[in-house]
Specification:
With about 525 residues, the chain is α/β, with parallel strands linked by helices. It has three domains: about 240 residues, Rossmann fold, CATH 3.40.50.300; about 180 residues, Rossmann fold (3-Layer(aba) Sandwich); about 80 residues, no CATH class. It contains 18 helices and 24 strands. About 45% of the residues are buried.
Amino acid sequence: MQHIIEMQHITKRFPGIVANDDVNFNLRKGEIHALLGENGAGKSTLMSILFGMYIPEEGTILKNGEPIQVLNPNDANAHGIGMVHQHFKLVEVFSVLDNIIMGVEPHQFGFIKRKEAKDHILALCQQYELMVDVDAKIQDVSVGMQQRTEILKMLYRHNDILIFDEPTAVLTPQEIKQLMITMKNLIKEGKSIIFITHKLDEIMEVADRVTVLRRGKVIGTVETSKTTKEDLSRMMVGRDVVFEIEKKDSKLGDIALEVNHLSVLSERTKKHVVDNVSFRVRKGEIVCVAGVDGNGQSELGLVLSGLIKATSGQIIINGEDMTHKSIRYRNDHGLSHIPEDRHKHGLILQDNLANNLALKKYHLLPFQKRGIIQPAPIQELADELIHTYDIRSGQGGKTRVGSMSGGNQQKAIIARELDKGSDVLLSIQTVRGLDVGAVEFAHRQLIKSRDEGKAILMISFELDEVMSVSDRILVMYEGQIVKNVMAKDITVEELGLYMAGVKRDFVEADQLSKPMNNEVKEE
């Protein structure tokens, strides 16, 4: 079969690490070829080379058997190569429309033909069921809509070789299902797709072939129809992976987090995105907020962490009213926070890993003395967390965080927040971008924290994660809690009906804050 793209003997080095080590990879015309590997295995680096964002020290790229030079993304686009990036390449103060057409604006007599561009984008939205608000600014839209904007950028440019780098990491189950259909339709239209994902179910559903990378080297390429999820995970991490995490029954303690009649008014829409929400989380349980993206979960996470202000209501942590307290005060008095957007709210990308791991502790002893930062204790903390959480970094604590893979950035945040030992952990999209081995590890850590008596509030769009990790589920729809149920007492199908708004329990907010029958404190 004809190879539309061949990458031969690609080698790329960064300080302290060989990201791609003599890699050979090919893409057949009209196939979906999955690229699988652990966090830091070199997948995104290899595709960044194909897209012209990195130049390899060694190796050749061929298209249709002819060598091509890809020195920058403009060269890639000229060769019909487009890429949806794992970390969005969007200008936050620009509109969705301006981000999509940037660099290829239709114009006449020096003026951008905005109506023509808008009509074209809206047609693409309808065709691929990737709905966006084209007039909204990127900074005002959800992470899911930002992802859809990235996909539309590529479709708008009529690329025939499409690289999807973790495109489903921030999408809801419904959106993922639609994207799978979209990818199959693109293949029917003559496109060829490279699909980077950690989600084995997605690979088995849509990919024709899979190439597995481990620590920068190709382990092998297999036909999807001739392999299993277990085989792929073993190739990826070099051991058997447990997909279903076993956990003991929860032993409930005191109330650690209490939310009473909480509301948040959107400045843009002037509607309540969080609408009179009340609930509580006890020590020793994992409560998961489930729902379709855009129903107030993101805003709930932001207001609990202190990143935005509540319009009304009350947030209580360990009996203390935190509603009007600063972010630092909350962090120092019982709250840890794994944010939804790791780049915007979780990390300082230009700083090194050690300083990022100490972000919540640098103002405390022994990390500072008389207001002067102490590098030695910070490095000691970093060394311990890097080892414990297997954070892959070429230069250890000295590694610039922005140069690390997305999954290892996420591991750094998880390590920092769990190491604080806070009574309440607010964790949003905990395993976004993590490989199956890292997901298994992260879930074990969450359950370990719960068993140690911590109260964990998760916000997740991953139904598998919601069902397997949580003890209790709160479903949000249109800013309200419409279901409060023990995870063992609901099916995925019924949960989906509540998430879609087909079913809802009309329960008063006061009732949602009362203990359930099986929420009995352990004596």
